[in-house]
Every structure is written in C-alpha cells, then in structure tokens.
Amino acid sequence: MTNDKKICVGAIVGVHGVRGQVRLASFTDDPEAIFDYAPLVDEKGTRVFALTFRGTGKDHYIASIKGVTTREEAEALKGTRLYVDRAALPPEEEGTYYHADLMGLKAQDAQGNAVGIVENVFDYGAGTFLEIKPENAKSFMLPFKDAFVPAVDLTGGFVEVIIPEGWLAEEKPPKERSLTKKAGKKSKKEDE
Known about the structure:
Layout: E1 6-16, E2 21-26, E3 40-41, E4 48-49, E5 51-56, E6 61-65, H1 71-76, E7 81-85, H2 99-102, E8 106-108, E9 114-123, E10 128-133, E11 140-143, E12 151-153, E13 158-160, H3 188-191
Parallel strand pairs: 8-13
Antiparallel strand pairs: 1-2, 1-7, 2-6, 3-4, 5-6, 8-9, 9-10, 10-11, 12-13
C-alpha cells in the first residue's frame, strides 16, 4: 500500500466574526487532532492552511488561518475541504481502515472473481457501507461487516466480498390494491 493519498480531515463550514476567522468542522476520531496535523491543504494540494485554534461553537471549532484577515477572505474559503497526507496520520489499529484506503480497491469473491471496485465508503451512523460498482451494472451497497467483507488486503489491493443470494435482485413490482371497500358495522349515530 502506498501512503501518497490525501485524507480529508475537515472542512471550513462558515465564518466567525469580521477578522477572518472561520468555523471549522473536524472529521477526525479525536476532533481536536485536526489542529495537530500539518500541513493541511485543499483538495488539489495547491493551497496550504496553517490553522490556529481560537475556540469552540456548538458543533464546530473557531480557527484563524495564517494570511486570512478579513471576513471576505474567510467567506471565499467556505466549503473548502482540508486534507492531510495519509503518511501523517497514525497507523490504523488491527481491523480498522481509513475510508480513503478502501476506495479504489477491487472487490472480488472468495474464488478471486471480479465483482467490481469499491467506489465509496459511507457511514450514516448505523454502520459503515461499501459502495461497489460492477463493470456493467449499477453500483450497490454492502455492509462493511465480516459476514459480507471477510477479508481486506490493502497490499494486494482488494476486498473479498460475500453477496447474499437475492441481494442484487431487481425490485419487485408493487402489489395491486383492491379498490373495493369492506363492509363494516355502523354505529347507531351513523343511522340517525
């Protein structure tokens, strides 16, 4: 596995005040760790951001960025995602993976037959899901659990997947509804 990837560790989500400070969302396990990583760069790696912690808000940090001194300069950065070199991050624990390390891996079955490519990784709070894109079919989601993904080989560049029977079956058409009403009992008040 190469460590030349960039990992998104946060984003500038708004401005704070008139002196160029920004509201910062952290995507790291330890949210304050975003201030420990350097250098942080934009997605293309063309702009470097030196952050200084200034405080906290309800669901964000307040930070200043070296060279940004006005509200207008800060507003221009809103929506900028902040990245760090993969090599700057601590090694993952056994059985855990950075999402960026999984994306782009080949998905194959236990016999080594190609299933597709891991296109994305999602975590909506109920667990992590891999989005797998077969060569000539729609992408599908698979839970990132041992029952569905028993092996991850970063060095070999693949994940082994088990797709349960019927998992990829086409949707069934909705059942037809009856238009007849069932006769019910009337109360005395309805008869009056």
